[in-house]
Structures are given as C-alpha cells and as structure tokens.
Amino acid sequence: MQHAAPLIDPFARPITYLRVSVTDRCDFRCVYCMAEHMQFLPKAELLTLEELDRLCSAFVGLGVQKLRITGGEPLVRRNIMGFFHAMSRHLGAGLEELTLTTNGSQLGRFAGELADCGVRRVNVSLDTLDPDKFAAITRWGRLPQVLDGIRAAAAAGLRVKINVVALRGVNDGELFDLVRWCGDQGHDLTFIEVMPMGDLGNEDRLDQYWPLSDLRARLAERFTLMDLAERTGGPARYVRLRETGQKIGFITPLTHNFCESCNRVRLTCTGELFMCLGQEDNADLRAPLRASGDDAVLIDAIRAAIANKPKGHDFDYSRQTVTGQMTRHMSHTGG
Ligand SMILES: Nc1nc2c(ncn2[C@@H]2O[C@H](COP(=O)(O)OP(=O)(O)OP(=O)(O)O)[C@@H](O)[C@H]2O)c(=O)[nH]1
Ligand SMILES: C[S@@+](CC[C@H](N)C(=O)[O-])C[C@H]1O[C@@H](n2cnc3c(N)ncnc32)[C@H](O)[C@@H]1O
Ligand code: SF4
Ligand code: SF4
C-alpha cells in the first residue's frame, strides 16, 4: 500500500518499476552475458529473501507498481517460490504486476506455482530454435528443456513473451523462423540490441551487434509493420504485423535511445540500487536496511538514491569502437 509521496527523479520521471536480481548465479553461461569462468558472489554476501522482501515492500510503499524478478537465473535461487508467494500479498494493494524474466530452464518445475502467486506473464530468453546454436550460445543450456518450460508456462495459463538478443552472424538467419514460431505458438516476441556489459573474455561486442534498424528493415521486406502506441511499462516499442496480427517489440538502446521515458531502477541481491543500467553509480541499501528495523532510514536512503538517477546511458558503437562499456555483467543487475 502506498503511504508516502511517490518517487520522482531529477528529470521528472516517476519511478514505478523495480527490477530485482535475486541471484547473480545461473545455470547457463550465455556468450553475450557472462564469461565462461564467471566468479560469483560468496553466498554469505547475499541478502536473505526476508531482507529482499523488506526492500521490495518499501518500494511498493513508495509507489512501485511493477516488480520484475530477474537474475542471474531467478528460478535457481533456493526457496524463490516462497519469495513469490510473499510478494503476491502486494498485488491489488499497490502492486499491479508481479513478473519475472527467466531463461526458462526451471519453468517445467515452477510454472504452476508462479501462476498461483498471481504471475500472469513471463518473459523467456530464447535466441535461437536450433539446438546446436542454442548450446553454443548458452554454453550450458539445452533447448528441449527450455521448450518444455515454455510449454509448461503456457499450460499454466501464463502469457509468454520471448526475448531474443539480436546477434549478427548467429541468429540473423533465423529472423523469420523465430517470428513464425512465436506466431504459431501465440507468444509475443521482443528483439533486443546487445549492450556492452562486462568483460566477456574472447567475445567482441562489435562483431555481435546487429542493429534493430536493420532487423526491422528485413522484417518490412515481408510484412507490413504497423506502429503501436501500447506499452508494457518496459522499454520496448511495439509493431503489429498486418499480415499475421502478431505483436513484435524492439528494445533499441543503441539505435534509438528510450531513456527519456525511463521509469525503473534495479536492486541487486546484495542490496545495491542501480539507478541506471548503463551507469556504474549505485547506492547501498543494505546498510540502511540493517541499521534499523524501522523503515524510515531505508526510505530516506531510497529517496536520496532516486535524487541521483542519471539521465541515461552512454552506450555507443557508432564510431566502430565500444564506448559507455560497463564493468559489471548483465547478470549482476538482471538486464
Ligand atoms: N538500456 C536498457 N535496457 C533495458 C532496460 N530495461 C530492459 N532492458 C533490456 O531489455 C531486456 C528485456 O527486458 P525484460 O526483462 O524482458 O523486461 P521489460 O522489457 O521491462 O519487459 P516488459 O514488462 O515485457 O516490457 C533486458 O534484459 C535489457 O537487456 C533499461 O531500462 N535500459
Ligand atoms: C541477464 S538475463 C537474467 C534473467 C534470465 N537469466 C534470462 O536470461 O532471462 C536478462 C536478459 O538480459 C539479456 N542480456 C544479457 N546480456 C545482454 C547484453 N549484453 N545485451 C543485451 N541483453 C542482454 C538476456 O538475453 C535476458 O533476456
Ligand atoms: S542471459 Fe540469463 S540465462 Fe544467459 S547467462 Fe545471463 S543470466 Fe544466465
Ligand atoms: S539506460 Fe538507464 S536511463 Fe536509459 S532506460 Fe535504461 S535504466 Fe533508464
């Protein structure tokens, strides 16, 4: 329940969307997200789920309406279903949407319980329908397990949105197959431009980068794209394909910056609050959380952090070099 003035940042943007990375660990090692030999946080540094509950509840009290659980892989955190159950108490009492972004590997186990917790839709990352390519991209993932997970989600009544990172030379040849498959299955589909997050070892961002302006032009060779005004509260802009009626989203941090309408901040599993995905600056909420059982200190710290939210990211590949690169990996803040 909201009990205080809402969070408004220095650029007059209301902050109503909290993304929470509940673990930095993952059962996959996607080539654009992680180095092959990632060092994860010692478990002792993680906030407990009860502490994360207190933090998220404070944000809901401050006007957050949408809560997205992410990671790492959120569904590998022990007792994560207990956390979803706990968060579901806020639905209809300030919180309008409780949802998650997942690689889908554990949906076979958890889809039904997620639906019971009031989750209505789930975003599943799936960059290819080719089993060998899938194994190459995710290093540790296996496609059939993810497809089973997606089926389980649909069977549980969850709406599925497939997130595809557009990767030149990797999935550019599958554009129409992915569109057709999502259409046949009744899943929404969103493409994402690859962002320069974290050192990946051998991978080169410029080689990976496939601008969505190109992808969109390719789509327009076969379909009539009708721009839609509707929004999901995230950064995607949507079109409908006139010929099939399908909805397709584009997340374009590089070719079309959407920061002016930013409504979100990110909380990590150690209690850091990142005010922008594309900046290094963060605020520690763990100390104020642990300083007192009363939320007043915590709420002051949250307001002070929001007062420092930057205007946007500085990602740029336009001069054939990568600028605005972040040191942390995408799994740290959960995308
Ligand atoms: N630069 C930037 N990229 C973002 C932001 N939010 C999401 N993304 C990118 O979009 C990807 C997909 O986001 P999702 O986790 O599906 O969340 P969403 O786009 O808010 O989802 P919807 O609620 O379905 O709109 C993330 O992993 C990021 O790569 C943002 O604020 N800034
Ligand atoms: C970090 S993952 C966390 C949740 C879950 N493990 C998953 O893969 O959906 C969230 C999203 O970030 C995307 N992602 C990871 N690294 C990225 C990068 N460098 N640029 C753009 N998107 C990225 C993934 O494709 C995924 O859709
Ligand atoms: S994108 Fe998601 S599934 Fe892939 S390595 Fe990163 S956190 Fe794991
Ligand atoms: S890059 Fe930063 S300011 Fe821009 S939309 Fe993402 S979080 Fe918001």
From TrEMBL:
Keyword Glycoprotein among record annotations: no
Annotated positions binding GTP: 19, 68, 101, 161, 264-266
Positions of the Radical SAM core domain: 10-235
Pfam families: Mob_synth_C, Radical_SAM
GO biological process: Mo-molybdopterin cofactor biosynthetic process
The reaction(s) this protein catalyses: GTP + AH2 + S-adenosyl-L-methionine = (8S)-3',8-cyclo-7,8-dihydroguanosine 5'-triphosphate + 5'-deoxyadenosine + L-methionine + A + H(+)
Binding site for [4Fe-4S] cluster 2: 259, 262, 276
Alphabetized UniProt keyword annotations: 4Fe-4S, GTP-binding, Iron, Iron-sulfur, Lyase, Metal-binding, Molybdenum cofactor biosynthesis, Nucleotide-binding, S-adenosyl-L-methionine
Cofactor info, note text: Binds 2 [4Fe-4S] clusters. Binds 1 [4Fe-4S] cluster coordinated with 3 cysteines and an exchangeable S-adenosyl-L-methionine and 1 [4Fe-4S] cluster coordinated with 3 cysteines and the GTP-derived substrate.
Primary role: Catalyzes the cyclization of GTP to (8S)-3',8-cyclo-7,8-dihydroguanosine 5'-triphosphate.
Family: Belongs to the radical SAM superfamily. MoaA family.
NCBIfam families from the UniProt entry: moaA
Protein name stated in the entry: GTP 3',8-cyclase
Naturally occurring in which organism (per UniProt): Paracoccus sediminis
